[in-house]
Design a protein that fits this description.
two-stranded antiparallel sheet, 5% strand, elongated, 122 residues, mainly alpha
């Protein structure tokens, strides 16, 4: 079981052409399977909850500390990735370069950057 289940389920009635009937089905679905208002913090080093408040900016982090930490992780990973890619490019024709290891680290950094999301998250 997920720590923070989303409650997101396939919607019935998406093929219903009558908008009133579709609206009634959507309300019934929301009653039966409400979407959760709590999700995990976007900082991959944190397991804390983030609550949806309904107004204003939608929070993605449980605290300013987590937002700041994720920003620092993103910056460091981006810098490392740029250095690795530049090194791989500059050493294309040189022997003795651990290219597989560098590519592996670059791929892991790309994975972490995908998990950290874009820099403009709140």
């Amino acid at each position: 079981m997920a720590r923070y289940p989303s409650g997101i389920t396939p919607l019935p009635g998406r093929d219903v052409t009558d908008p009133r009937a579709r609206a009634r089905q959507l309300v019934l679905e929301d009653d039966a399977h409400p979407v959760s208002s709590t999700a995990p913090c976007v900082n991959p080093e944190c397991a804390g909850p983030v609550d949806f408040v309904g107004k204003g900016t939608m929070p993605l982090y449980c605290s300013n500390t987590c937002r700041s930490r994720a920003s620092k992780l993103r910056a460091v990973a981006t810098e490392q990735l740029e250095v690795i890619e530049r090194t791989l490019d500059e050493t294309k024709h040189l022997a003795g370069i651990p290219r597989d290891e560098l590519r592996s680290r670059a791929r892991m950094l790309q994975w972490w950057l995908a998990r950290l999301g874009p820099a403009d998250e709140r």
